[in-house]
Amino acid sequence: MKKIVIILGIISVLYSCREEANYKGKFPIINTESDDEAIISDLFESKQIIPLETTDRSLIGLGISRLDSHEGKIFILNSLSSRRNVLCFDLTGKYLFSIDRMGNGPEEYTYLGDFVIDKYKKEIILANDNNVFQVFDLDGKYIERKEARDRYFNRHLIQKDDTSFIAYNSVHSVPYSHYLLELDSDSFNIRKSVYEPLDKLGDMGDRTLSIYDNKVIYYNSNDTIYNVLSDMEQEPQYYVNLGKNTQMAKREIVGVSPETFDIEIQKQFDMGKLKIVTSIFENEKWVAISTLHYTNDFVYNTFFYNKESQITYNAENIDFCLRKNKSIKNIEIIGTLDNGAFCCLIHDELLDLDEEKIEENWIYPPGASLHIDIDEDNPILFVLK
Hints:
Helix content: 10-25%
CATH architecture: 6 Propeller
């Protein structure tokens, strides 16, 4: 089922996909086919391990859909088989509380699409269906329920400043083809919107929009990362080279008839040729992107682009100083801490650990263990700055 959902989520994007951006070469290129190698300590000064505490109330289900942090707390959007909830941990990974309230009451939700931390009002905002928003304080206590007058369906929500949020709207929902919305932070009504009839970006993914140091960036299906300016205009920043296989797969897909369109997407993805961007994040030194492709199973990969040297490092070519055989695969970035540090998940089980290297290179809570059962225990966060 998960595989079907992911595939369907990118159908409309590829249907409207343009050829490579005509300004390729005018902007820095994030090259996902780079073979440059490095040691983790040469790239990042701070490296921290945060094992997320496993309890009956804090169990992470199908995966983490989003991570945010504020005032020493980590907030996670947790996807379970039948619902979503918000889990809160401290910076050592200790479980603090959850917001898990399925139902029809004022404090409850029937669908939880996303959440955002209002860092000015110090509140947790839950984005539900039917333009309903529920407000909690940073300790998980319910404050109030709000309902926006304007109709839209946001797939992702970030805070732009003290008066506004930016929502990534589904192109299949009103206002049609308006994929970026600026929302008033009090009423959640639409202030401004970006109209683009050619690109159905709302279905590209859940986390292709992010902010750092008041700079908002998002990823477009023409393989471009844009800076969203104060007037909601977009300025190209980086071109993302996803490789020849993905470029050829897209050309094959857009060339078929509408009747066989979804079949061709499934075929290209199953063949491992189609790579999609699932998240983008930026800090003062790096741009980081995660991609997803299929080779007998879902495989995430992460790429770190150094803005000064303009070198892209494939995480698979980085010695993370965790294992004796060096190689680490299936890495995904799911969010950042307040200081811009990247929070990564390693989806594969960590075997053949090198305890001496870990001791020399990583900071972690006393008594913490990396020996976890990926089917029973909560995952470990690897935080890089």
